[in-house]
Amino acid sequence: MRYSVPRSLSPSPVRRDPRESKGRSTYGLNLVNYSDSDDSSDSLEDTDSTSDSEVEAPPEPPLSPSHKLRPKATPEQRHVAETIAAIRLRTRHHDPYEEWEKQTRKDAFRIARKDHAALQSKLLSERDKSHTQEERRLAAIHTRQLAEVEGMLSSLKIQQQKEEDTLKRTWEERDKALWARIDAGIKVEEDKVRVKLEAERKVREEAERKRLEEEARKNAEEERKRKEQEEIKRAADEKERLRVEQEKRQQEEERRRAQDEQATADGRKTIGLTTAGEDWRTARSILMTIKNNTMKPIKTDKARRSMWGEYRRKITPKIGQLTNDSNSIRDITMFIQSQIMLPNPPHPPMLYTGLCSSLAKAILLQAETEVTAEKKAALPLAQLTHALLENLPSFPEVFFAKLVQRCGPWAIPSVLPTTDVTGEPWKDDDERAKAMGYRRSVEDNVPREPVGEYMLRVAGIMRVYFAVLKLPPNNGQPLNPLFQMPRLWVWLARLMGSERMLESPVAAQLIYTALDVLGSFALQVWGHQWVKLLELVYAGATAGYSADNKLIGGSSAEGIAARSRLKMEVERIMAGR
């Protein structure tokens, strides 16, 4: 902002020489000596300065001689004086526009505060009004909902009361019916007791009558015996004489029969045949020997038990890994032979026998689980068993003994004798069932497994056995006679000759299993003779095998199903001739 003042009149009509104004300030101040501070102050206070270059300073009177004698101010002093004069001028200047602007701001601020206060009051009033309306609306809604809830509770209470009344009536009717049944049961029991007492009375009367009759009969019998005693006594000598003669004849017959049996036994031994009883006793003796002379010493000795357990734990996984693949069968067979059964150096005899027992048990358990579920699983298991029977010493005898243990006398077949191989009778039914091959049931109230499970389990094991009979020798040396093809004929002939065993449903299932595995193959081997045996089997399954026309397998549901499968299998073999 620029300020200007009117030029003052010159005190003299004559302008001073411009050279005289060299010492003057551009603000219109006289150049004075700062040593005279009072004069300079008065001169600055009385003179209005301006920054406008167009304003000229008024002429000054000529200096007096005394002023001319004063020394001139230095440029620094002039600069300081000019600066002070400018500051004083600036501080004393009054600007109306600025005053108007300040006043305008104050008025605008006052009006704005007034409007803001009015607006705030209006907003608060409207908010209170809306809050009041909202509270009224919510109160109305609450009142309506409260009425609805009370109505709903009232209806629920009425419904609950109705349900309670219905339930109460139901319980009363149930109690009446229950007590009626109780009274009826009590009456029935009373009638039973009354009938029982009446029956007991009649039994006592009948017993008393019979006692009297028995006493009379005994008296008459005693009288008759007394009369006959003399006749008996007279005939005693004659009878004794006849008895002595009869005993002599019987002894002679027994001696001849023993000679004949001995000759027959010698002939059977010569050609390698044994009876069913001999086979069972041999297998049972081997089994008892393994149990008492092999496994017990192994399990009681810590070192032997540890070594036996180490090899036994290698057998079970290998048997479980068996598949219907020639390479797999060969690898597992070589591993069991070289790594487990016949290592270098060889096992002690006791440990080897124990491992043979464990190996046979593992194979039979695998047959129980796998072959029972899938018939095709019997072939690889039979190939492995056949290879082990060829290459492992003493394994055939141990395997057949374990087979008899798991299947009972059905592996021979033979009727279980009344005494054990030791000559002692069986202790109880559990021991006899165990010798038959039955396992204990998982149910506590059932002492042994059901016949159906036993039949399927034995059939699975025997399927592997029959498959072994079918396989030819690999190294040119025949297997043990117990595992050769003629054993099928012996097995089937023994079973068909035992009427007691043919009554069981197991017989029908095992005959079907044997024919399913070896029926067609045996027809090629034995021809017409095998056809005759099949005719005998078919007749036993259709017409009966005894004088009273009993059928193979009996009349149970399992026997009927197995007999049906047996007839269809015989028909299939005969149709494929």
Automatic annotation (TrEMBL):
<dbReference type="GO" id="GO:0015031">
    <property type="term" value="P:protein transport"/>
</dbReference>
<keyword id="KW-0906">Nuclear pore complex</keyword>
<keyword id="KW-0813">Transport</keyword>
<dbReference type="GO" id="GO:0044614">
    <property type="term" value="C:nuclear pore cytoplasmic filaments"/>
</dbReference>
<keyword id="KW-0811">Translocation</keyword>
<keyword id="KW-0509">mRNA transport</keyword>
<feature type="compositionally biased region" description="Basic and acidic residues">
    <location>
        <begin position="14"/>
        <end position="23"/>
    </location>
</feature>
<dbReference type="GO" id="GO:0031369">
    <property type="term" value="F:translation initiation factor binding"/>
</dbReference>
<feature type="compositionally biased region" description="Low complexity">
    <location>
        <begin position="1"/>
        <end position="13"/>
    </location>
</feature>
<feature type="compositionally biased region" description="Acidic residues">
    <location>
        <begin position="36"/>
        <end position="57"/>
    </location>
</feature>
<keyword id="KW-0539">Nucleus</keyword>
<feature type="region of interest" description="Disordered">
    <location>
        <begin position="1"/>
        <end position="80"/>
    </location>
</feature>
<feature type="region of interest" description="Disordered">
    <location>
        <begin position="205"/>
        <end position="270"/>
    </location>
</feature>
<dbReference type="GO" id="GO:0005543">
    <property type="term" value="F:phospholipid binding"/>
</dbReference>
<feature type="compositionally biased region" description="Basic and acidic residues">
    <location>
        <begin position="205"/>
        <end position="260"/>
    </location>
</feature>
<keyword id="KW-0653">Protein transport</keyword>
<dbReference type="GO" id="GO:0005737">
    <property type="term" value="C:cytoplasm"/>
</dbReference>
<dbReference type="InterPro" id="IPR012476">
    <property type="entry name" value="GLE1"/>
</dbReference>
<dbReference type="Pfam" id="PF07817">
    <property type="entry name" value="GLE1"/>
</dbReference>
<dbReference type="GO" id="GO:0016973">
    <property type="term" value="P:poly(A)+ mRNA export from nucleus"/>
</dbReference>
<dbReference type="GO" id="GO:0000822">
    <property type="term" value="F:inositol hexakisphosphate binding"/>
</dbReference>
<dbReference type="InterPro" id="IPR038506">
    <property type="entry name" value="GLE1-like_sf"/>
</dbReference>
<comment type="similarity">
    <text>Belongs to the GLE1 family.</text>
</comment>
<protein>
    <recommendedName>
        <fullName>mRNA export factor GLE1</fullName>
    </recommendedName>
</protein>
